[in-house]
Write a structure and sequence with these properties.
5 helices; alpha+beta; 6-stranded mixed β-sheet; 15 strands
């Protein structure tokens, strides 16, 4: 009898080991990097054929947190409890709320990050189409858009109580002037086991014609936050800088915007009075950006509003906050204002940011 029990236990343990081995093989075999220099489809028809120097324009950027991060949400990878959005209805509500917040700014260009196409965590809602439909319903029916995938993962079995599942997500760029060309550039990423659960980091590079014969080269970016090797994050900025410098040398105008995952204010605690035992967002090191470019940290010093909160717990007044969303502009662009829209993190763990600019 005892031998039978021991044998049964052994068989169960062996079955579990084989299943885990098969799962790990599935994850490793399924893993792939999306090809570099991938040409992106340009959708829609814009109201304008080009932008003009000496006119005022506004660009916004918003990380949507895949439609999950309402103010009472916490995420397991950040030390919280949830791995999916609370419900499909919550996804619709958060995406609609984030889109409405951005639209309240009346931007000419919109950058979005963490937009899910078909993911377990967001109940397979196509958030890209949802955003575009919301734009059309609110007067933005004449726009062009591009989408670059930066997260196409196999089914993640963890956490066991609610597996994160399969994810397909990326960067959405929307412009009221026609995007002429668009390409996805793959950024350096971690080479260890962590690459299996991190994003396939990239930036989306869009070209918009100007009336003076030059082009506005628009970069939608989502850089890495957590890296076991610090050189990975550094090399991402180096690559972006080299690309922007090449375009700037042609006489083009450069704007890079998005979730930098860097403290774009240099020291956010100076503005928000919050500290963390592990501040994961460091400033961009001096010297990585060419002197032709300026990092724009959106801030109203008289009334500072952070762009991001920690998602280890629901948002409160004591949550760790900072600003990691911002812009990089070339010296042939004048920036008149850059600020953060205070939504109190109602629909995402990021507040939208915006910048008013004039092409010289």
């Amino acid at each position: 009898m005892v031998k039978k029990i021991i044998k049964s236990i052994f068989i169960i343990i062996l079955a579990i080991i084989l299943l885990l081995a098969a799962y790990m093989a599935y994850v490793l075999i399924s893993y792939h990097r999306i090809e570099d220099n991938q040409a992106l489809e340009i959708e829609g028809e814009a109201a304008l054929s080009e932008f003009k120097p000496q006119e005022l324009y506004r660009i916004s950027s918003a990380n949507l947190g895949f439609g999950a991060y309402s103010d009472d949400y916490s995420f397991f990878m950040d030390g919280g409890t949830e791995s999916w959005a609370y419900s499909k209805d919550a996804v619709y509500e958060n995406i609609a709320g984030s889109t409405a917040s951005v639209l309240s700014l009346s931007p000419d260009i919109m950058l979005f990050q963490e937009v899910d196409l078909n993911s377990t965590r967001s109940y397979h809602v196509n958030e890209k189409d949802l955003i575009v439909d919301n734009l059309k319903d609110n007067g933005y029916d004449k726009v062009t858009s591009t989408f670059a995938v930066n997260y196409d993962s196999p089914f993640l079995l963890y956490p066991f109580t609610q597996p994160h599942g399969k994810s397909n997500a990326g960067l959405l760029t929307v412009s009221t002037a026609s995007i002429q060309d668009s390409v996805r550039r793959s950024l350096p990423i971690e080479q260890g086991i962590s690459k299996l659960i991190d994003l396939d980091r990239c930036y989306c590079k869009n070209y918009i014609n100007l009336s003076n014969g030059k082009q506005l080269v628009l970069y939608n970016v989502h850089l890495s936050a957590y890296t076991t090797d610090p050189s990975t994050a550094t090399n991402q900025v180096v690559m972006l800088n080299e690309d922007m410098l090449e375009e700037f040398s042609k006489g083009n105008y450069i704007i890079a915007g998005g979730d930098m995952n860097k403290d774009v204010l240099g020291d956010s605690s100076k503005y928000f009075g919050t500290t963390s035992t592990e501040n994961w967002a460091q400033p961009i090191p001096d010297g990585l950006l060419d002197d032709s470019f300026t990092l724009i940290g959106p801030i109203d010093e008289a009334n500072p509003v952070p762009s991001c909160r920690n998602a280890d717990s629901p948002y409160t007044e004591d949550s760790f906050v900072l600003t990691i969303d911002g812009f990089i502009v070339s010296s042939n662009i004048d920036v008149l204002e850059a600020n953060v829209l205070d939504t109190r993190f109602k629909y995402s763990d990021h507040n939208p940011v915006y910048m008013d600019f004039v092409l010289k």
